[in-house]
């Protein structure tokens, strides 16, 4: 980049950031900003990047030659925990990237692991959850990623990813995948089978009502006889209105109210905010972003600001406004002492 643009470097561990800052000074990099955040909260803190490189924390099975203790210290539970964390990190990395950036919208995911649960499974999860696709990594060597491995079946585009093995490529075990983001919208989860069946029934009814083009009473009665509709319901077919019950309307209104309540962030108390800030200040803490925290902070700052402005208008400080009240017990004590 030749010291043009901006590079944002982030790491959860403060001790590792010292080495990062030292390497930046040694290489003469002057356009880098170093931060210490949980990367899972980056979309809420900072985003709109043109390109993102995610070197995800992993089990380290690719560097056993350097650290043989990995063979004894790690087990299946550690790999599942790493896989879960990597899925959260890759989604936050994709959400932090801007698909409309000029010559941008690329995300590179890499690990120093050779486990399928930490590599292909995570990439396949990202393909399902976000509007991204895999592209060529630009590396001429390496082995293609797995599309089939034991009980796993992945997207065929995972052939574009690259695997590196110590015994064949004379380097640490490594995995690289390159994404191209083509939309900033987050796809909605698939609807259930029942909802799909209801939509199909509504479409069939609409097709019968619109496709028949019924105008005469004779044709309407013919349709009614075939479908088993009574004479009362034929009026609804003419006007293209379906009969509905009052109970259905009430249940639909209740569902809408529940959906609105779920969309709202939960109300936070000041005690919860203080606890969150204490956890966040701890070194190496992995803290998830709390929904509604920024809104709570804005309300508090706005309240304090309004209070100060009102005090300045009256010509008194907020402290002077507080009146000192003596407790009745203090008066009794003073009389007894005398």
What's the total count of β strands? 10
Write the CATH fold name of the largest domain. Answer: Rossmann fold
- Describe the largest sheet: 6 strands, mixed
CATH class of the largest domain: Alpha Beta
Low-confidence stretches: 191-243
The number of helical elements comes to 14
Q: Which overall shape is indicated by the principal axes computed on the Cα atoms?
A: globular
Instruction: Provide the residue-averaged pLDDT.
Output: 76
Number of domains: 3
Terminal residue distance: 82 Å
**Do you know the CATH architecture of the largest domain?**
3-Layer(aba) Sandwich
Full CATH superfamily name of the largest domain: Vaccinia Virus protein VP39
Helix content: 40-55%
Classify the secondary structure makeup into a structural class: alpha+beta
What proportion strand?
Answer: 5-15%
Order of helices and strands: EHEHEHHEHEEEEEHEHHHHHHHH
Write down the Rg: 31 Å
Strand-helix topology:
Layout: E1 7-10, H1 14-27, E2 32-35, H2 42-45, E3 51-55, H3 70-73, H4 76-96, E4 106-111, H5 120-129, E5 132-134, E6 143-144, E7 148-149, E8 152-153, E9 162-164, H6 166-169, E10 174-181, H7 193-212, H8 217-227, H9 231-238, H10 246-263, H11 270-281, H12 293-314, H13 318-321, H14 328-337
Parallel strand pairs: 1-2, 3-4
Antiparallel strand pairs: 4-10, 5-10, 6-9, 7-8, 9-10
């Amino acid at each position: 980049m030749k010291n043009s643009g901006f590079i944002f470097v982030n790491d959860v561990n403060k001790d590792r950031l010292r080495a990062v800052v030292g390497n930046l000074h040694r290489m003469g990099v002057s356009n880098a900003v170093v931060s210490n955040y949980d990367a899972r909260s980056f979309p809420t803190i900072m985003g709109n990047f043109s390109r993102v490189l995610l070197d995800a924390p992993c089990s380290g099975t690719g560097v056993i030659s350097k650290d043989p203790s990995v063979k004894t210290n790690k087990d299946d539970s550690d790999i599942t925990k790493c896989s879960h964390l990597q899925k959260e990190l890759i989604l936050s990395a994709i959400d932090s990237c801007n698909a409309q950036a000029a010559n941008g919208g690329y995300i590179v995911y890499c690990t120093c692991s050779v486990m399928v649960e930490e590599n292909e499974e995570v990439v396949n999860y990202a393909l399902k959850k976000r509007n991204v696709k895999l592209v060529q990594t630009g590396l001429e060597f390496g082995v293609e990623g797995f599309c089939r491995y034991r009980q796993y079946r992945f997207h065929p585009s995972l052939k574009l990813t690259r695997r590196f093995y110590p015994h064949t490529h004379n380097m640490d075990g490594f995995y690289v995948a390159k994404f191209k983001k083509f939309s900033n919208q987050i796809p909605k989860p698939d609807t259930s089978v029942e909802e799909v069946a209801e939509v199909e029934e509504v479409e069939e009814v609409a097709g019968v009502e619109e496709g028949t083009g019924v105008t005469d009473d004779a044709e309407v009665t013919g349709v009614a006889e075939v479908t088993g509709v009574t004479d009362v319901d034929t009026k609804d077919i003419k006007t293209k209105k379906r009969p509905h019950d009052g109970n259905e309307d009430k249940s639909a209104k209740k569902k809408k109210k529940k959906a609105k309540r779920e969309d709202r962030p939960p109300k936070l108390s000041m005690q919860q905010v203080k606890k969150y800030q204490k956890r966040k200040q701890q070194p190496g803490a992995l803290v998830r972003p709390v929904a509604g925290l920024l809104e709570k902070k804005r309300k508090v700052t706005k309240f304090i600001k309004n209070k100060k402005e009102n005090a300045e208008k009256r010509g008194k400080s907020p402290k002077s406004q507080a009146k000192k009240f003596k407790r009745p017990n203090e008066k009794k004590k003073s009389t007894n002492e005398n």
